[in-house]
Amino acid sequence: NINKLNLNLNKTFTTNNSNNSNNFKKIENFPIIIIGGGTGGTIVANLLSKKLKNSIKIAIIEPSNYHYYQPGWTFVGGGIFKDKNLTKGETKNYLPENINWIKNSVSKFEPENNLIELDNFSKFSYQYLIVCAGLQINWNLIKGLNETLGKNNCSSNYSFETCDKTWQMIQNFKIGNTAIFTQPATPIKCGGAPQKIMYLAADYWLSSSNSSSSNSSSLSNSSSSNIHFFTGNPKLFHVPHYEKSLLQVCSKYNVNLQCKTDLIEVIGDQQLAIFKNLDTNEIITKHYDFLHVTPPMGPPNFIKSSPLANAAGWVDTDQFTLRHTRYNNIYSLGDNSSLPTSKTAAAVARQAYIVVQNLVNDIQSQSQSQSQLNLNNDKLLKYNGYTSCPIPTGRKNLILAEFDYNLKPYETFPVNQSKENRFFFLLKQYILPAAYWKFILNGNWSLFSVFLSKFYNKNKTN
């Protein structure tokens, strides 16, 4: 049926070149265009390639030669992974051969005309558009951060360039000094990541302290370090089922928790971190001996300024069908979408499966009816907000948080995942990185994870 679909988009149109009215510039046409070649775009490309089997031309627009396993940067910064280059691969190795890779960036959307424009002013038309361009890290919103990042005992695991420096600084940290970890009030990639590095570091320091004092059982009573966690959010973790356990972990490491407080400036040469209380506007200046910064993040500028964006700048996406709320031939997933769930790789993998199934349904419905797009949402799969955040609580154990839109546990394994677990740490350390490169990016993991999660959750409710 797909082969019967006449998309009328394989021919080439011409339009006036805005730079020279005497020249004409071709608009190449692809029935399906994917914006972004990160986790979401790569999975979608592979799933569509398998589903459509070369019957429809597909393009993916991605400027980078390299693909990164970003969840691995926490373990690089925490000293679990010794080589950060193991989190880096070549983009071309993970895209299907029958996908047209356009190595450029999108600068403009014209959804009313089914057109996109690239940085080099070339234009492409589409029948279906999938937007999964990730989010934008706004380092510049913290005054002085760009100048001091990677030195002056200030680092961040949110950059490939500095994640290994985090581990160097953790090792050089003197027990008894002041360590500060931050989390902004903005949405971020993996909401648990700012805590992860804190627990990995605290456990390392605790072990170092214990090796010099056999009577020390916690950081609070021998060679005590001042560990502070400043978060712009109103609580440590927004899912109550897991927050209770995480608060106990903070207590074990004697962490000083301060909520609704955002980092606004770093004075590197003086090792000062300046915070603002979001309730009172009080300015707090704190000396540090080690500072790990999670920077503010937001939608990419080219999306924020486009017709696709909602008031907050994210792609305005139906939280269940993953269709755009106004343009029915556009889907969105991942960090750039407005979906009210945590922005994690696990969430993206599940969303990719939903997007591909619904898009193929659209194509088949249009093929059968030979008419306009079938907007019967009853036939579409619905996303329940599933996301996963594996949070190491030390160098041997991990809490595996999995939940849905309602902030209710939606767990994979038939155990209480809010409890610290050695197996979960090994899963994060060995199985998930290998699975990412071998199974997740090529789409094979998506169907398996959907089945596994549904199987266990069904049994839990029976």
Provide structural commentary:
The protein has 10 helices and 22 strands. By secondary structure, it is of the alpha/beta class. The strands form 6 sheets. Strands 1, 2, 3, 6, 7, 8, 9 and 20 form an 8-stranded mixed β-sheet that branches. Strands 11-18-12-13-14 form a 5-stranded parallel β-sheet. It has a 3-stranded antiparallel β-sheet with strand order 15-16-17, with no helix packed on it. Helix 1 (39-52) runs parallel beside helix 8 (345-369) and helix 8 crosses helix 10 (444-461). A hairpin with a 4-residue loop joins strand 7 and strand 8. The model is unreliable at 6-24 and 214-218 (pLDDT under 50).
Characteristic key phrases:
462 residues, 8-stranded mixed beta sheet, 5-stranded parallel beta sheet, 10 helices
Tally of DSSP β-strands: 22
Largest sheet: 8 strands, mixed
Q: Radius of gyration over alpha carbons?
A: 24 Å
Weakly predicted, low-confidence segments: 6-24, 214-218
**Can you tell me the overall shape?**
globular
What percentage of residues falls in helices of 4 or more residues? 25-40%
* Distance from first to last alpha carbon: 39 Å
Put simply, the count of helices is 10
How big a fraction of the residues is strand?
Answer: 15-25%
Rounded average pLDDT: 90
Q: How would you classify the helix and strand content by structural class?
A: alpha/beta
